[in-house]
Amino acid sequence: MEVFSPLLEQAIELAAQWHDGTYRKSRWRVPAFDLPDDTALGVPVTAHVTAVAFTVQRAGWDDAAVAAAFLHDVLEDGNRFGQRFRRARLRQLMGDAVTLLVETVSEPRLDADGTVRPWRDRKVDYIARLREGPAAAVAISLADKLHNLWTMNESLAQGIDIFSKGEGRRALSAGPEAQVWFFKAVLQASRAHADDRLAPMRARLQKELDRFIELTGQTAS
Predict the structure, then answer these.
(1) What confidence score (pLDDT) does residue 56 get?
(2) What is the CA radius of gyration of the chain?
(3) What residues contact 16, with CB distance under 8 A and at least 6 apart?
(4) Which of 126, 137, 148 is nearest to 51 (CA)?
(5) How many Å apart are CA 168 and CA 41, to the nearest integer?
(6) pLDDT tens across 83-122, in order?
């Protein structure tokens, strides 16, 4: 294995540029350094995509999968200028293999008129893509959902109500019952793929799902 990957370097740079100035819905850690008065510290989206990419890499996937993990939100999320990243441009910059993986794990968020589709409809289509897509895309999805759910659980453990809007945070788009349905559906869809590298990723996501169910008082059935 080469110690340096130009493909990964380009993916990291592109992800950092696209997500520059965009933040996660909330934070649970206390600031690690003093801030000026009236300043709120958010969690950059780049921290999330980096955690996802490292998880994919640690699970044994190749550079194309890790690059796609860094870029897994560029088609789905707009940048701070309100722009949408074009698939053709992603293919031109990153090639067919990376683009296919990013497309597979990107929710069809907008309808033909540019209106945001209902949460449940988006998730149903996303699950269908996972079942039919390549195993590497499933790995990216499991890593993404693992990091999302872990951060949700860390917030809940700190007594933060992630389901309602508050100072310095935005509410999640769906409540705990719907979240349990979605994470279970991701796990189930992942089982359509037999790659051994997915097994520890499923197990870790299941562990966080069990913790979420306990923290929110949901039923495990």
Answers:
(1) 98
(2) 17
(3) 46
(4) 148
(5) 8
(6) 999 999 999 999 999 999 999 999 988 888 878 899 999 9
The residue extents of the domains of the chain are: 6-216
Q: What is the torsional sign of CA 138, 143, 144, 145?
A: positive
What tens digit of pLDDT does each residue of 144-190 get? 999 999 999 999 999 999 999 988 889 999 999 999 999 999 999 99
DSSP assigned state of 134: -
Burial of 216 from C-beta contacts in 10 A (0-12 / 13-18 / 19+): middle
Question: Per-residue DSSP letters for 37-102?
Answer: TT-PPP-BHHHHHHHHHHHHHHTT--HHHHHHHHTTTTTTS--TTS----HHHHHHHHHHHHHHHH
**What CATH number matches the domain at 6-216, 3.40.605.10, 1.10.3210.10, 1.10.455.10, 1.10.10.10?**
1.10.3210.10
SS3 state of residue 173: coil
Q: Would the pTM count as exceeding 0.90?
A: yes
Describe the crossing of helices 135-157 and 45-58 by its angle, rounded to 10 degrees.
130
